[in-house]
Design brief:
The chain has 308 residues and is an alpha+beta fold. The protein is built from 9 helices and 7 strands. Strands 2-1-3-7-6-5-4 form a 7-stranded mixed sheet. Helix 3 packs across helix 4. The longest helix has 64 residues.
Length: 308
């Protein structure tokens, strides 16, 4: 479908496109193949729009009279979507490569509705469309922050789960995906802002500059989340080391308290012929009392000196 934008929004047919009228459209891959050459698009960019590109930051191309971009759209509620975008003077064309839940089409319609707030222009429509695609970014970042805050509480309280490292690694993996996602759009906005092929009016590049700043903030926020996950991994490792140190301390204290008993055992286990205690009537009781006194005395000394 195509829409011309003048004083109002009009749905038009592809053959009705006029280069002097602001027009936006969203089409399928098959529809692009039918009339893409008539819009002045090169064969290689048309072919690139026929398949999903699963990598971020790879499909951005500036031609003499248009700019082409392949975009992977992260969908928090489902599978990722894939689109390509053609931008030339007075034309924004979105190719819907893969959109299982129509979220990209909804974002496109949302951008069209916003065009009524102020003077319609290509630069503002591009900003509205990309902002609609990234509209859930702040909520995603906030959910990560809340999850990490809960993890931090368990670490401080010493009640962290055994699989916490796997959980933190999963968070870092997800944040890396969003970092690449925002970097993809940042590449697009910065390239459009450079206006290498003179598609945009110089006085309206401010819209693209503002878009670049917004995407930069989103990317910085998600980078902070990833950095926080790194710090929590270090804190968790320190907690495990502390627990190990406490365990070793207990074993050391036990060894210290009961080590003199091994000396007594070794002493009376020598079985020399002239050991008076061996023939003494109370020798057995004497050794028991001596051992108990030794353990109690060392325990008292350790408690007083705060060894434990």
């Amino acid at each position: 479908m195509f829409f011309s934008i003048t004083d109002s929004l009009h749905e038009i047919e592809p053959q009705e496109l006029r280069p002097d009228v602001l027009t936006v459209g969203i089409v399928t891959c098959e529809e692009l193949t039918e009339f893409g050459h008539g819009l002045g698009f090169d064969e290689d960019t048309i072919e690139a729009s026929q398949k999903a590109n699963h990598l971020f930051r790879t499909g951005l191309d500036v031609r003499d009279d248009y700019t082409f971009a392949e975009l992977r759209i992260v969908n928090p509620g489902g599978e990722d979507d894939f689109i390509s975008v053609f931008i030339k003077k007075n034309l924004l064309l979105v190719v819907d490569i893969l959109d299982t839940d129509n979220s990209t089409r909804d974002s496109f319609i949302s951008a069209l509705k916003k065009r009524a707030s102020g003077s319609p222009c290509l630069e503002r429509l591009i900003c509205f469309f990309i902002e609609a695609l990234l509209s859930g970014g702040n909520r995603v970042t906030e959910s990560f922050q809340l999850e990490l805050a809960g993890i931090e509480e368990t670490i401080v309280a010493g009640t962290a789960e055994k699989e916490l490292n796997k959980r933190l690694l999963n968070i870092k993996k997800r944040t890396l995906k969003y970092y690449s996602y925002y970097s993809q759009f940042l590449d697009v906005s910065e390239t459009l802002e450079e206006n290498e092929n003179d598609i945009f009016a110089e006085e309206k590049l401010i819209y693209l500059t503002n878009l670049t700043n917004k995407i930069t903030r989103l990317r910085d926020d998600i980078a902070w989340v990833s950095s926080t996950a790194d710090h929590l991994q270090d804190a968790y490792a320190a907690m495990l080391d502390q627990k190990l140190n406490n365990t070793m301390k207990i074993f050391t204290l036990i060894t210290t308290i009961f080590f003199p008993l091994t000396i007594i055992v070794g002493w009376y286990g020598m079985n020399f012929k002239y050991m008076p205690e061996l023939e003494w009537k109370y020798g057995y009781l004497y050794v028991i009392v001596l051992s108990v006194i030794e353990v109690v005395a060392l325990y008292y000394i350790g408690k007083k000196r705060k060894w434990f």
